[in-house]
Amino acid sequence: MTSTLHNAGSIPVPDHANDHDFRARGDREPCADDWKLCSDVTRIHGRTFYFSSQFMPPVKRRAIHSAYAFCRIADDLVDRAVELGEDQVQARLQAWEDEIEAPRQPVAIAYAATRETYRISARFTHELFSGIRMDLAPARYASWDDLYVYCYRVAGTIGLITSPILGARTTTATAHAVELGVAMQLTNILRDIGEDAASGRLYLPLDELAAFGVDPESIMAGRPNGDFPSLMGFEIDRARDYYRRANAGIPALAPTGQIAALASSRMYSRILNQIEAQRYDVFSQRASISTRRKVRELPVVLTSFVRLNLP
């Protein structure tokens, strides 16, 4: 087993100023109801994302919500595979992916306007769809390098999509946005081990399970053997390292983007603390952070913002 983390900077990060595939033309301009629908999807399904976006001005907030809503709709389609069948889900995913270049639905129209305003490459959203399709035929990941590809596609791309809205001014800042996405996805994986196992999915790298003497089938059965606590500690340390590396790019964001990124990083990483508090029991309870707890974290977020901007 290696403890060397995959270098997120190895993912090519294009110069948005020279990327021309961000243009999308819909049948009309987005209206107030389109933006509201995006906001509603974000508020209901992405509570931490929604909470963090409240630090942004209204125009950027609605842009962030449109990006989240478009990607969330795609992601949720995979969860309906049992209900609809894989062929039907594939067809619906393709129809939704087609909305990137030819938006007709309200959320897609709003997202197209966001991409054009902030010069966001369509490539990133297409890469997201590649990652989402990986979940239609759940595969096990031999190593962290293999799992990283999945994390990049389903979450690192979100960093690339949102970083222009947050005011990223350098390609270095954009690479750090990828790291934040990977950190948050790894947090999701650790939080949802039990739920994923019940659905027949296992994301933890097989070589790392073996290094800690954990039989994959014991996880699938909800009764992990071997040194499962040490395995979880190892994975949590990796996630925290990605959060630390991502935070290095926050000073390169616009001020409101800094606050939103700090809030997302701080509050989402608290899920790792909750997993530890539960003694790594991710089978009988789901680690989560309440709105009250998020509010209590605000002074820390604001203090961090002030420190970043001291002369």
Summarize the model shown.
This protein is mostly helical.
Structural summary, described in words:
With 311 residues, the protein is mainly alpha-helical. The chain is built from 15 helices and no strands. Helix 1 crosses helix 3 and helix 14 crosses helix 15. The longest helix has 23 residues. The radius of gyration is 19 Å and the shape is globular. It starts with 31 loop residues before the first helix and ends with a helix. The N terminus is likely disordered.
- Sum up the overall morphology in one term: globular
Please give the count of helices. 15
How does the helix and strand content classify structurally?
Answer: mainly alpha
- Estimated radius of gyration: 19 Å
Percent helix, as a range, is 55-70%
Low-confidence stretches: 1-22
What about the largest sheet? none
Amino- and carboxy-terminal Cα gap = 43 Å
DSSP summary, beta strand count: 0
Topology of this protein?
Blueprint: H1 32-45, H2 47-53, H3 58-78, H4 81-84, H5 86-98, H6 106-118, H7 122-134, H8 144-166, H9 171-191, H10 193-198, H11 206-211, H12 216-220, H13 228-247, H14 255-277, H15 291-308
Helix pairs in contact: 1-2, 1-3, 1-6, 2-14, 3-5, 3-6, 3-7, 3-8, 7-8, 8-9, 9-13, 9-14, 13-14, 14-15
Name some characteristics of this structure.
mainly alpha, single chain, 311 residues
